[in-house]
Amino acid sequence: MDVLGSLGTHLSCAPRGRDVELRGVALHDPAEHTAAAADDVLLGLGVPSPAAAARLVGGTSAAAVVLHGAPPLDERVLAAAKRSGAAVLLVDPSVPWGQLANVAQTLVLGGQGAGDLFAVADVIAAVVGGPVTIEDQQSRVLAYSYRQQGVDPVRVQTILGRRVPEEAWQALDGYGVFTHLARSDEPLFVPKLTDQLGGRLVAAVRAGRELLGSVWVEVDDPVDAVRAAALVDGARTAALHLLRARASADLERQAEADLVIEALDSGLPANLARLGLPSTDLRVIAVQAHAGEGEHGAALLAFSRATAGFGWSRPGRSALFGNVLYTVLPCGDDPATAVDWVRALGRELPAEAVVLAGVGGRADAASLPASRGEADECLALSEGEPVVYDRAWARVLLRRLAAVAEAGRLPSRGPVADLVRHDAEHGTQYAMTLRAWLAAQGDSREAARVLSVHPNTLRYRMQRMAAVTSLPLDDPEQRLAMAIALAITP
What we know:
By secondary structure, the protein is α/β, with parallel strands linked by helices. The protein is built from 18 helices and 15 strands. The strands form three sheets. The chain has a five-stranded mixed beta sheet with strand order 1-5-4-3-2, covered by helices on one side. A five-stranded antiparallel beta sheet has the order 7-6-10-9-8, sandwiched between helices.
């Protein structure tokens, strides 16, 4: 459901909950009775009405049934699902059954035979008649055809740099190419726009209403209807491959995230071994990312960037919990590795994104939960730069004590409380004066310098303060308690 939700899928009912394991995919054949196993997901092709859907759902032994439609679920279908125990998923009717079948097979069967996107590019190039690139929604190159002879300079830069050069992107955007891709599946011929950017034929790669990317063919002139139709077919095939790749990646991310959360909660070494992490010299990083008005958009993008690539190619393992990205990173005594990781992640996000981060202390498997707590507390202190527990533990301690004070557990009477009340009632600055005197370790001249007053003025204040409350300044324990109370008092 987590993956299919991105295709406009709604879980309408799940009588047995979401923890049902699926092992196969079956297709409903309206012409004959479809036998589905108890652990199958049944794709309800050719179901013309709610009554027919109710008959299918009520009579199947499948664990889940997928139907085209929009919520809410018809009451007859809901009653049938409760009888049979089958979960019912409603999918936006604009999503073709072919795409659903491919994604479902990837999710359930593990994505065997997902195919080669480069081979798709080769086939399109051969049929349409020109070098091909397949790009994602951010104009990054995912695959390209073997045939690239005689291409223009922009095509060369695109393939070598793995994305469309900025100047070329601006020219294409000005011509309205990306607006067309967002709205239409029809191929668009783009004439030569600059000296280095030749003619192009482009078509959207789409899953239902979601734009996944685009296919570009370098051509000098508009093509005939047959070649244009071939490009559309190639774009549909590319969509299947992209959906399968995304589904597999999402499954890997979810499995990794589950293990990371378990490790942070329980500190079990077995989870670290399954994640491919050492059992010592680890740190937990907590990251929040904010951009624009979306509450979780930047956080989801940060999670996607943090988990991009194969597990063995990434130093850390990550999970998104609420709007906080947690990453367990091997880095030992030196937290610089963790700080560099946060900064590298920030460079992967949009320029307007604000990244806040906290880095917990060094941990082994058993102390990972403690490192996570430290990372959370450091995150709360972050104002832009990553906050590292090793350097900020004093601020963390004072923040904990401040939380205690906010809960009403700080004594409401005593020297500091008396001075704060006097300041509020008479406009004096006695609490500030005592804070400076304690910070200067009793050096009146240094305290006066910090306060920008004459030393005699400070001494006079100290005398007046002693008349307001008892100030046992010669007692080390009392001085420590007053310093702490002042540090956590707003």
